[in-house]
Write a structure and sequence with these properties.
Layout lengths: L1 H38 L3 E9 L3 H15 L4 E2 L3 E3 L10 E10 L3 H14 L4 H5 L6 E7 L2 E2 L2 H4 L2 H10 L2
Antiparallel strand pairs: 1-4, 1-5, 2-4, 3-4, 5-6
Amino acid sequence: MKHLRKVFIYIILVYLKTKKKIACEYQTFSFNLQIEKESKMKKKCILSLGSNEEAEKNMQFMCQRLIEKFPGILLSKAVYTEPVDFFSEKHFLNRTAILETEMNVEQIKTYLKDIEKECGRTETDKAQGIIRADIDLVQYGDAILKPKDINRPDIRAGIIELQH
């Protein structure tokens, strides 16, 4: 009888440990699913596009590549602006874009840099005031990545245009 009581207690302890382990594993699984779900949620992004060298051709190329990757992208009308915090004798052609994506910040930035390179952007040109293509990720979700840029008049006007 004593032996049966020990076996019974042992079975109860194993059952409780197993139940606790299962509950813990379930909570971990649920947490991981939530993280995965959140990482797959679409984030609203605001981009700033600019060019001061073969500006119309390069702007068209940048927009085409962005539309291919982000079919629902919204693009503001193109406007010419004075260079900001940058010496150049040439005006910039600028546009603002709004898109939604499941890509993370690094994936988007890498994609944007690839487009710039495809347009022929080089550090040597930049040092000479030549910007064939410049695409900046200004906002990602709720995070303002370029606070100074988001307040530029051309970007503000582009955001307002695209939200109406």
